[in-house]
Design brief:
The protein has 15 helices and 21 strands. The protein is α/β, with parallel strands linked by helices. It folds into 3 domains: 203 residues, 3-Layer(bba) Sandwich (FAD/NAD(P)-binding domain), CATH 3.50.50.60; 115 residues, FAD/NAD(P)-binding domain (3-Layer(bba) Sandwich); 120 residues, 2-Layer Sandwich (Enolase-like, domain 1).
Length: 461
């Protein structure tokens, strides 16, 4: 039986970086991953393929709407086999780079699935057993299939299927209104599909503010998407010509038929095959691994990080969690837990949605006093000339000194603009501190000065 100091289950963002750090600290480390291809969700089936395709669709969208800029582009369409081939080439390069990094690393790679036999022993799918002093569970997430009549048996597309398309589906119904659903729905619509989105909650992007959701919804509807919110999904069935979806909306039952259906109703922790009960590791609803601020589970020598433990399914957070777990397990002194007061999140729709720090509803729920100021992109010079008029910048600050507490940007390049605040907020800067910096005109970035100025005026008024 092979023995290690630190064994990592899962080779995605959390797992790879944890193994790298642990090995660098001189610990005998194993990285266990039985996936068909190494690389993790972000590289293979998540962030990178989706953003590769979204950018191609954005270029196509601008070409098709060039007339509003006085430009004549006679025709523009997607060559789907070439779009798909480009995506595969780029993702293959990213995956190869990660695989080479794993091959060069000072840890042992074991290509197998794993499950716990007891709190210190794993059974591997290659027939071997492995023991370790400490473990990290970093098995990520998988597409959720909610308990909706007929959904599991219908065989709907998932995000994996959409990202692998090499043809253009003429009509698609997307179930869900979260980040993945909105990004994929806009992608398909911009490539040329007729898209209907059916969301169970009262708004798209239910984890974001109503104002952010309204801006994205308006933009999607302008692009021809049908958006139906506040529904109850009753039944999904496979038919000879595709799918039938029955749902209730505003007290009435409706039916929609479609040749193609996408299940984008969320993701869930990928933990069912680990037999965590044998390790006496406590899980929460849906199989999420319960952790403390040091990433430790109910078994102090077993850690967890990334999508399987949450609370945020975001790559840079997973990396932070994995590295923290590796250092804490090695007894490194002076560590700090992941700071979720600086949580950074981006939705890559158009307009993009980016948030940093505390959300307004979180401040309200905590009864914490704050100042808020916002400014719309439809009154800003650079965004007007770009015809990018949806959205706003909102700044939240504490009322005594104006220290920045949170930022919401909904609009063009929001995922880039939010980084004007990441450094200052990490250094506990105030609105006045940011106004000391120069902001070039005309740029998108200078829009942030308007809410900042309003915050400062409220402090001195």
């Amino acid at each position: 039986m092979r023995t290690f100091d630190f064994a990592v289950i899962g080779g995605g963002s959390a797992g790879f970086n944890a193994a790298r750090v642990a090995a660098g600290l001189g610990r005998r480390t194993a990285l266990i991953d039985g996936a068909k291809e190494l690389g993790g969700l972000c590289i293979l089936r998540g962030c990178m393929p989706s953003k590769t395709l979204l950018y191609a669709a954005e270029i196509l969208h601008h070409a098709r709407h060039a007339g509003r800029f006085g430009l004549r582009v006679p025709t523009a369409s997607a060559d789907m086999p070439k779009v798909a081939a480009r995506k595969r080439r780029i993702i293959r390069e990213f995956a190869t780079y990660r695989q080479q990094a794993i091959a060069r690393a000072d840890f042992t790679l074991i290509r197998a699935q794993a499950k716990f036999l007891d709190p210190h022993t794993l059974a591997l799918s290659n027939g071997q057993h492995l023991r370790a002093k400490q473990f990290l569970i970093a098995t990520g997430s998988r597409v959720a299939v909610p308990a909706i009549d007929g959904l599991a048996a219908a065989g709907a597309w998932t995000s994996d299927d959409v990202l692998d398309l090499d043809f253009l589906p003429p009509k698609v119904v997307v179930l869900g209104g979260g980040v993945v659903a909105c990004e994929l729905a806009q992608l398909l619509a911009r490539l040329g599909s007729r898209v209907t989105v059916i969301q169970r909650s009262a708004q798209l992007l239910r984890d974001h503010s109503p104002e952010a959701a309204a801006a994205v919804t308006a933009a999607l509807r302008e692009e021809g998407l049908e958006i139906i919110t506040d529904t109850r999904l009753e039944k999904v069935a496979r038919t000879p010509r595709g799918y039938r979806v029955d749902y209730t909306h505003e007290g009435r039952r409706h039916t929609i038929r479609t040749p193609h259906l996408v299940n984008a109703l969320g993701r869930e922790p990928n933990t069912t095959g680990l037999d965590l009960a044998a390790a006496e590791v406590r899980t929460l609803h849906g199989g999420r691994v319960a952790i403390n601020r040091w990433q430790q589970t109910s078994q102090p020598h077993i850690y967890a990080g990334g999508d399987c433990s949450g609370p945020a399914e975001i790559v840079h957070v997973a990396i932070q969690q994995g590295e923290l777990a590796a250092r804490h397990a090695a007894g490194v002194k002076g560590l700090r837990p992941v700071d979720f007061s600086l949580l950074l999140n981006v939705v890559f729709t158009d307009p993009q949605v980016a948030t940093l720090g505390l959300l307004e509803r979180e401040l309200q729920a905590a009864g914490r006093p704050y100042l808020a100021a916002s400014y719309p992109f439809n009154d800003h010079g650079k965004s007007i000339l770009m015809e990018a008029l949806h959205g706003h910048v909102k700044v939240l600050a504490e009322p005594r000194r104006g220290r920045l507490l949170g930022v919401e940007i909904v609009g063009p390049s929001a995922g880039e603009l939010i980084h004007a605040f990441t450094g200052p907020m990490a250094m506990r800067a105030t609105a006045g501190d940011l106004l000391k910096a120069p902001w070039y005109h005309p740029t998108l970035a200078e829009i942030v000065t308007y809410p900042l100025e309003e915050i400062v005026e409220k402090l001195t008024g």
